[in-house]
Design a protein that fits this description.
Blueprint lengths: L13 H18 E6 L3 E6 L4 H14 L4 E7 L2 E7 L5 H12 L4
Antiparallel strand pairs: 1-2, 2-4, 3-4
Length: 105
Protein backbone atom coordinates (compact mmCIF):
# COMPACT_ATOMS: atom_id res chain seq x y z
CA UNK A 1 0.00 0.00 0.00
CA UNK A 2 1.44 3.40 -1.04
CA UNK A 3 1.69 6.13 1.59
CA UNK A 4 -1.19 8.57 1.57
CA UNK A 5 -0.22 12.05 0.38
CA UNK A 6 -1.38 14.87 2.58
CA UNK A 7 -3.30 17.70 0.92
CA UNK A 8 -1.37 20.95 0.57
CA UNK A 9 -3.81 23.12 2.46
CA UNK A 10 -3.85 25.05 5.72
CA UNK A 11 -6.75 24.23 8.03
CA UNK A 12 -6.86 27.66 9.75
CA UNK A 13 -9.75 30.05 9.29
CA UNK A 14 -8.97 33.50 7.87
CA UNK A 15 -9.06 35.13 11.32
CA UNK A 16 -6.92 32.37 12.90
CA UNK A 17 -4.46 32.64 10.02
CA UNK A 18 -4.19 36.40 10.54
CA UNK A 19 -3.45 35.90 14.25
CA UNK A 20 -0.89 33.19 13.46
CA UNK A 21 0.92 35.38 10.93
CA UNK A 22 1.13 38.17 13.52
CA UNK A 23 2.47 35.72 16.11
CA UNK A 24 5.10 34.48 13.64
CA UNK A 25 6.04 38.06 12.67
CA UNK A 26 6.46 39.01 16.35
CA UNK A 27 8.68 35.97 16.89
CA UNK A 28 10.72 36.94 13.84
CA UNK A 29 11.13 40.51 15.09
CA UNK A 30 12.25 39.28 18.49
CA UNK A 31 14.56 36.47 17.50
CA UNK A 32 15.26 35.87 13.81
CA UNK A 33 18.96 36.09 12.97
CA UNK A 34 18.86 35.03 9.32
CA UNK A 35 16.93 32.95 6.83
CA UNK A 36 17.75 31.08 3.65
CA UNK A 37 15.01 29.71 1.45
CA UNK A 38 14.63 27.78 -1.76
CA UNK A 39 11.43 26.64 -3.46
CA UNK A 40 10.45 23.84 -1.07
CA UNK A 41 12.80 24.32 1.88
CA UNK A 42 14.14 26.93 4.27
CA UNK A 43 16.59 27.23 7.11
CA UNK A 44 15.95 29.98 9.66
CA UNK A 45 18.22 30.79 12.59
CA UNK A 46 16.97 32.32 15.85
CA UNK A 47 18.35 33.64 19.12
CA UNK A 48 18.21 30.91 21.81
CA UNK A 49 15.98 33.06 24.04
CA UNK A 50 12.91 32.46 21.85
CA UNK A 51 13.01 28.66 22.07
CA UNK A 52 9.64 28.17 23.83
CA UNK A 53 7.85 30.50 21.43
CA UNK A 54 9.49 28.90 18.39
CA UNK A 55 8.57 25.41 19.53
CA UNK A 56 4.98 26.55 20.16
CA UNK A 57 4.72 27.99 16.64
CA UNK A 58 6.24 24.84 15.13
CA UNK A 59 3.74 22.65 17.02
CA UNK A 60 0.84 24.85 15.90
CA UNK A 61 2.02 24.84 12.27
CA UNK A 62 2.41 21.05 12.33
CA UNK A 63 -1.28 20.84 13.31
CA UNK A 64 -2.69 23.12 10.61
CA UNK A 65 -0.20 22.27 7.84
CA UNK A 66 0.74 18.60 8.33
CA UNK A 67 2.30 18.45 4.86
CA UNK A 68 5.21 20.60 6.16
CA UNK A 69 8.23 19.05 7.80
CA UNK A 70 9.40 21.32 10.63
CA UNK A 71 12.47 20.59 12.73
CA UNK A 72 14.04 22.73 15.46
CA UNK A 73 17.52 22.07 16.78
CA UNK A 74 20.21 23.97 18.61
CA UNK A 75 23.39 24.54 16.62
CA UNK A 76 26.36 26.81 17.37
CA UNK A 77 24.58 28.83 20.03
CA UNK A 78 21.49 29.48 17.92
CA UNK A 79 18.25 27.70 17.17
CA UNK A 80 17.78 26.40 13.67
CA UNK A 81 14.36 25.81 12.13
CA UNK A 82 14.40 23.61 9.03
CA UNK A 83 11.28 23.65 6.89
CA UNK A 84 10.70 21.30 3.99
CA UNK A 85 7.62 20.79 1.89
CA UNK A 86 6.52 18.70 -1.06
CA UNK A 87 6.39 20.04 -4.59
CA UNK A 88 3.36 22.26 -4.97
CA UNK A 89 3.80 23.85 -1.54
CA UNK A 90 6.27 26.51 -2.67
CA UNK A 91 3.87 29.39 -1.89
CA UNK A 92 3.38 28.10 1.66
CA UNK A 93 7.14 27.96 2.32
CA UNK A 94 7.57 31.42 0.77
CA UNK A 95 4.73 32.91 2.86
CA UNK A 96 5.97 31.31 6.08
CA UNK A 97 9.49 32.65 5.61
CA UNK A 98 8.10 36.08 4.70
CA UNK A 99 6.02 36.10 7.90
CA UNK A 100 9.11 35.36 10.02
CA UNK A 101 11.03 38.10 8.17
CA UNK A 102 8.34 40.76 8.77
CA UNK A 103 10.02 43.60 10.65
CA UNK A 104 7.24 46.10 11.14
CA UNK A 105 3.58 45.94 12.03
Amino acid sequence: MAPRELPIACSLSASDLSRRVEEIAALGRDGLLDAEASDTSAVLRFRPGVRARLEAVVAAEAECCPFLSLDVRELSGALELRISAPAGAEPVVRDLVAAFRARSR
